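Incident log, structure service

09:12 report received: a user says their structure output differs between two submissions of the same chain.
09:20 pulled the input from the user's history:
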Amino acid sequence: MRRLLAILFALALVPLVPIPPTASAQSWSGPASTIANRNGRKVIQLCDQGGPCRTTTPFFMALNSQSVPVGNGDWSYFDYQARLAAANTAAADMNVAPMLQVHLMSTSDAFIDQLAGKLNALNPRPYLMVRMYLQDAPAFGREAVRMKDLQGNVRDDTNGAGHPWSLNEAWLAYQEEQISRVLTRMDTRYPGRVMGVLIAYANGGEWFHRPYGYDDTAGKMLDWGDPRLCGPVPGAAPRCGMFPWTNDSGSQPGAIGRHHFYLGDYSASAEAGFCSWPGLPASLLPRCRTATPTERNNAVPGQVPPVSGASRGTILDPADPDSLRAAKHNQYHSSRTVSAITRLLAKAKQVTGNRVLTAAFYGYQYGLGTELPVSGHNDLATLVGSPSVDIISGPYSYRESRLLAHGFVQQGITDTMRLSNKLWMDEDDTRTFLACEVSCRPVPFQTVTNLWDSIRVLRRNLIAAGIGGRAVHMLDLQGVGWFGRPDRAGDSEALWANLQSVFRAVDKIRHGGANAYRPQVAVFVDDVSPNYQAALTPAGENSYGFAGDQLPNLVEDLTRLGTPVRHYLLSDLAKGNLDLSAIKLAVLPNAYVVPSAVRSAITTKLKTPGRTVLTLYAAGYVQDDQAASTASMAALTGITVAKGSGTPALTQNYSFVGQTGGPGYPLTPWFTVTDPAATTLGTYQVGGVSLARKAIPVSGGSYTSVYAAAPKLPLAALRRISEDAGVHHFAPVGDSVEADGNMVAVHAGTTGSKTIRLPASMPRVYETALYPNDVEVCRNCAQLANQAFNEGDTRVFRWTSPPRGNFELLTGTTVEGWAADVDLPATSSAVAVYRGGPAGAGTYLGEFPTGTDRPDVNAYFGITGVHGFRFTVPNCAPGTPVHVYAVDPEGAAGDGNTYLGGRTCT
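09:34 re-ran on a clean worker, output below:
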C-alpha cells in the first residue's frame, strides 16, 4: 500500500497537461540559452537561431511593470531605464549583453502584446527574462490553505489575503497552461529574444509560507509586518515589533491578532500527500496523520499547549514519535514546494524546446529566521539537482547590504550552484538617490541620498557578485526610476557610466593563472536540520535572537573577516566535484541532524590533515533519526560534551581574545565541554567550558576541531580561529573582502590607511573597476601598503600571471603540448625552443606558434583561442635534450616566459 501511495504521489507531480498546438517547441524562435564557463567563472551563453553565439556576464536590469506608473499608462520610467541599461551594456569589451528581466503586470494576451510593443521599439532589443506571478487561478483550482493555531483552531484564508490556493493538481495543471501560453505569446510578439523565465508564487513570490496573525474583527489573515499587528504596551508607546507568540495562550491584552499565530498548510491535498510521501519513516505509517501545530512547535514533550512565551526546546528529538512526525511534516512541505517548482519549470523547458533558462526564488537559509522551519525552503539540495532548474534567486540581506561599510550578504547558499553548472542570482533592489515616491518623497529603506554613495553601494554589490561567480538583477521594485529617471538624465548617465567600469573589471577575472587565489574559508549549511527545530519558539521570547545567531548573524560577521568565504550545503560534501584543497577553515553552523552518509563525507572530506573544522551548538545531536545524544555529538566533533542543567543565560568569557559575549539567553538543551584533552578557549559565566579546541589525529597528521557550545561567537573570536587555521587575510578585521582567481575587492568598514596583503608576490598589480581605465599600482609586490580608504569605499585590485603550459610529449623529434597566457585568454601564443640545453646554454631554435586546437585546455580554464602546439625539432639526434618555454604574448611589458620542461629526442 505504501509503495502504491508513493507512486500515486510521484505521478501527481509529473507534467500531465499536453502542450497546446500554439506552443510547439519546434516553432520557438528564441535563443538557445545555457550556463557556460568563461575564464573560470559561470556566465550565460546565448546562441541566436541561425546566428552567432555570445557569452555574457549575468547582470540584468529588472523592471516591474506591476507598478503604479505603468498601471496608469505611464511607461516613461520603464522605457528610460530599459534604454539606459541597453545602451550601457552594448559595448563588446564589457562582455555584458543587453538583458532585461520584466515582472509582468498581467499575463493577459493584451498586456503581453503591449509589453512586446515597448520592447520591440528598443535599439538594441534586449534579451528578455519573463518574470511571472502564478497567483491567479479559476475557481476549479481554488483550495484554501487551512491555517491552524497552536491550540488547533482552524482558519481558512479565503478572503484573498495570503495563500488562496494550495499546490494541488488542479492548480499545477492550470499554471502549466499559463506558462505555456505566456511564453508562446511572448515569443510570437517579441521574436528571437525570450531567453528565460522566472516563476514566482506565495509570500512575495518567493515560494515560502509564512505564519500569519489573524484579525478577528476583519475576519482575515494578516501578513507579517501588518500594522494591525501592533499593540499597546503598558506605560509606553505602541509596539509593532512584538513577539508573535507572546499571547498565544489565548488572552488578549496585547496586539490585535498576536494571540493567533497560525501554521500552514493543512489543506486537504497537503494532509493527504503527507501520508503518501516516500520520505515518511515506516514507524509513522500505521495510523498515519499530520503533525499538530503544538507538536511542530514543541521540542520538549509534555507541554500541551505550550506555555505562553516559554522555550519549547530547540531540537525535535526523534525518540519522541510526535516530534519525529513534526520534523517530517516540516520536511514534507519543503519537498512538496520543490516538486511544484520543478514540475512547472520542466513545462517551460518543454514548451521552448529546452532553449530558455529557468529560475525561481528559493533557499533563504540566511533570511527567514524563526520562520525557516515552517517555510518550505529546506530542500534546496533537491532543487539544485533538478535538470529543470538553471537559476535560483534570492535578495541580499536588507539589514546589511543596503548600508555602506557593511558587506554584501546573500540570503542563500550561493556556491552550491556552481557545482551543478548553475547560477545563483542576487536580487539588488537598492534604493538609490534617484528613488522616490509621489512628489519625490524618500522611499522606505533608502540608505543613500547622493550620486556617489549610490555608485559606491552598487559597485560593492556588483563586484562582489561578479568575483563570487553569481548573477545579479538590479530591481526597480516600485517602477519609478531607481536606476534611472528621465527627468534626471545627467545623474542617471553618470551612475551607469560608473557601473560600466565594474562590468569591464568583472570580465578581467581569471581563474586559471599560475598564481590564482582560491578562498580558504567555507561554510557548510544544512537544509535538513531546520526541519527538526521547534517551529516558532525554540528559545521562547529569545527565539528571534536564537534564529539570528544560528545563521544570519554569523554570516554577517564572516563577511567582516578580512578574507572571502564560500557557502555550500552540507550535503555538497557528497559531490565528487567539490574541491576543498584550498579550504583551511570549514564552518558547520547548524549541523544538528546529520545522517551516517553525511557524517562519513565529513570524515573523509573535512577531517583532513592541517584543516580546522568549527562546529557550533548542537552539532551532530541526532543521527539517522535515532534518539538525540551527546555521544552522537562527540562522534561528529571529536570533543566530549555534556548537557547542562537548568536554564541559565549563556553569557561567556572568551579568554583567548579577551572578550565577553555569547547569546546571553537560555537554551534548551545547552551543552558544556567535558573533554580533558581539549584546550579551553571560552567559559560560561555560570561555569563550564563553552568553547574548546582539540588536535585530533588522522591518517597523515591531524586536524583541529573547534567546538562552540553556544550558537554565537564574536567577530574577534572568528578572526582568531581563522588566523590560527592559517587562513590568508587580505585586510584588517572589520573590512569586507571578496576575492577569487586574480582579483580582490576590499570594502572598508572604517576610514583610514590600510595595507592589503596579497597571497604571493605578484608580477603586476592594477587597480581596476575605475573610470575610465585601470591603473598599474606596482610590480613584483606582495602587499599594497598605506592604501587610503573612506568608510564605505570599495577598491578592486587584480594581478597578472606568467603564461602556463605543459610540454607533454617528445615522440622521436615531434614536440607536443599546450601553452596559454590567462591574461590574454583568447590570444594564441608561442613557445620558445632550445636544443641541447636550456636558455643560455642550448641552441635557440626560435618561437613556434600555438596552432593546434586544444578543446580540453579551453574547457578546463574556460577560455577561447588556439593553445596547442605540435612541431618537429630539426637536427635532433636521439638523446639530445629539448627545452620548451611558454612565451608571454605581452612581450617585454608582460610577466616573462615560463619554463615548461625538457625532454630528449628518441
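09:41 both user submissions now match this output. Likely a transient worker issue. Closing.
09:42 reviewer note: Residues 1-23, 247-259 have pLDDT under 50 and may be disordered. The chain has 18 helices and 40 strands.
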